[in-house]
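Table S2 (text version). Query chain:
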Amino acid sequence: MSFKFLDRMPPRKRGIIYLLLSSFSFACMALFISLAGDMPVFQKAFFRNLVAIFMSYFILARSPEKFRIKKGSMPGLLMRASFGTIGILGNFYAISHTNMSDAMMLNKLSPFFAILTSIIVLKEAADSFQWAAILTALIGAIFVVKPSFLFGNLGVSGDDFFPLLVALIGGISAGIAYTFLRKVTLNGERPIIVVAFFSTFSCIALIPFIIFTYQPITLQQLFFCCMTGVSACFGQIFISSAYAACPAKEISIYDYSTVIFTALLGLIFLGEVPDWLSILGYAIIIGASVMNYMYNNGHLRFKKS
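Corresponding structure-token output:
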């Protein structure tokens, strides 16, 4: 998907706009998840991926290679789909049970966990500065999760703590999934195949859980679930357009605008206001991301080890 007036812009500016559109789409996805109300997370995730199946299959059916998967891609596709499904469930559960911006911020830790996983899977070593960025981001996550055994009366525990822990697990799983996404695309696999395989795998894997936890839903809930899928698909389309227009290292930092959009939508539609500890955690995580971004683009004069 592209817009003609954007095509006339310089690639970097065009990439930034597409990434901001993607961030807003994912923020809308989070809002629709919350508005869907009290229903099993498995049903929410199923509808999100069902829309992606229809869109990806339509695109593949019109492509020259159709549904052909490249030799050697299957193990990576299975790992990407497995951890991606866990990541979605963790993110959706957290959004449904805690502050939206907290859940999305913890999900945005995934690039740091992708670095850790890449060391093992892709043999891509991190240097000392990147290790420092990872450690700083994890410190920021502690302020967002704020366990009571560290923060006392200011912290959270029990029912309030569990969704934040699930969000963190979702972010870790998403980071692992992104590593295997990179592995299969480096093998030459088409991105649309990855989307179609992941969506199909996820829907099939969720069916047994849906059977045992099924809960009748209203037409309004069905509408919000479908809009969750539509928003997620637009988010994927816009982010693909962004990285097609410009290298990721030049624009990826703008992906954190998702947290800002999510916080604004949560405030306007749900009356959610992050506490000062969460805001401090956001600042630490985004600060670590900015520093890592500047370092990887050569704007900081540190010698790589």
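Notes on Table S2: The radius of gyration is 19 Å. The chain has 14 helices and no strands.
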